[in-house]
Amino acid sequence: MSVLVAIGTVKGLFLARSEDRRTWQVDEPVFGMSEVYSLCFESGRLLAGLSNPVIGPTVAIGEDNGARWAEPGPAPIVFPEDTGASLERVWQIMPGLDGKIFAGTQPSALFSSADGGLTFGMVRSLWDHPHRPHWEAGFGGQAIHTILPHPADPAQILVAMSTGGVYRTEDGGASWAPSNTGVQAVFLPDHYPEYGQCVHKVARDVLHPERLYLQNHEGVYRSDDGGRSWASIAEGLPGDFGFAVVAHPRRTGVLYTFPISGTEEGRYPYDHRCRVYRSEDAGDTWRPLTTGLPDTPFYATILRDAMCADPADPSGVYFGTRTGEVYASPDEGDTWHLVASHLPDVCAVRATTT
Fold first, then answer.
1. pTM for this one?
2. Residue 72, pLDDT score
3. Which region is the signal sequence (predicted)?
4. 78-86: long-range pairs with CB below 8 Å, 24+
5. Is residue 297 reached through a cis peptide bond, with omega within 30 degrees of 0 on the bond before it?
6. Is residue 222 part of a domain?
7. How confident is the model at residue 264 (pLDDT cuts 50, 70, 90)?
8. Distance separating alpha carbons of residues 307 and 248, to the nearest angstrom
9. Could you give the CA distance from residue 134 to residue 131 in angstroms, rounded to a whole number?
């Protein structure tokens, strides 16, 4: 079995390959002048959300899992003229059912493609939602960063944004409703508003699609009813701030996160230690995973899409840092190995088997 890891950075896309997930070969970068903020493996292709200082933001498609790239053509994602908005960044690319591909953007909008990502159309019902004028920008921007199509029902889609929170549709996007009950917004006078939360990432349990895991701006939550309500699962973690949350691709109830201090003095890992936390009971208990990770003071941040897992058995787990290191675990987090170092800031990491 071979594993391919795509690493999106602020200065290009790197591909890392391994036969054992312990030793790695890292290719020379492509798109070296572009920020690569989103990645998606889909049907033997690699889709990348690029932001280039000359041509602007776009989506590039690499055949054979990124071995061959076509020159970007006309911009596949364009805001309708009457919106008065323009694309700033593609934050998320996600396949859905029936061959659809979704994209989440900055400013916060959802786009859908029926031709494999060559062209996208805006999901206008979400853009026209009466709450949209009240969505605010987080420190990273005002964007949809999570798209979770239901694995069995194409009418159900969940999105999350900073800030704004979680929104769901059950009618294929004809209408959308906020789904933030139980999720706090510590920076607002009302800590539990209908919407306005700064959600950082949401992941779906592989075998129980109604179970979701949410990393918030102060708060880690689980939903057992498809996002209609949320309950804290932060007990046992060193703190409840962070950006990434990843659900195991084969085992139910298994998830990973990387807690980071939310203080304004410095968003560093708690106790300045490099620790991935794993739960094997849907967040009821947590265990730190450190074998092979640096045991010296560690100050790097892990961004929301810079952590992932591959579909192998056992699954590999991966994360990249804003100081340019990428780590891999071949055994679901029990031990870790360095994939690459001295890269530009890592924005997104995605893995597949070949």
1. 0.97
2. 67
3. none
4. 79/109, 79/122, 80/122, 80/124, 83/122, 83/127, 85/109
5. no
6. yes
7. low
8. 12
9. 6
Residue type, 33: M
Tally the domains of the chain. 1
The helix (H) or strand (E) run that includes residue 253 is: none
Q: Which CATH number covers residue 115?
A: 2.130.10.10
* 304: nearest Cα among 293, 292, 319: 319
Domain assignment present for residue 61? The answer is: no
Residue 321 domain-assigned (yes or no) = yes
d(CA 133, CA 102): 22
Amino acid in position 201:
K
Q: Which amino acid is at 257?
A: T
The helix/strand count (H/E) of the chain reads as 2, 28
- Decide: residue 249, CB within 10 A, 0-12 exposed, 13-18 middle, 19+ buried: middle
Question: For residue 153, is pLDDT > 70?
Answer: yes
Count other Cβ atoms within 10 Å, centred on residue 90: 27
Give the residue numbers spanning the domain of 156.
81-334
Quick check: is 47 in a domain?
no
List Cβ neighbours of 265 (8 Å cut-off, separation of 6 or more): none
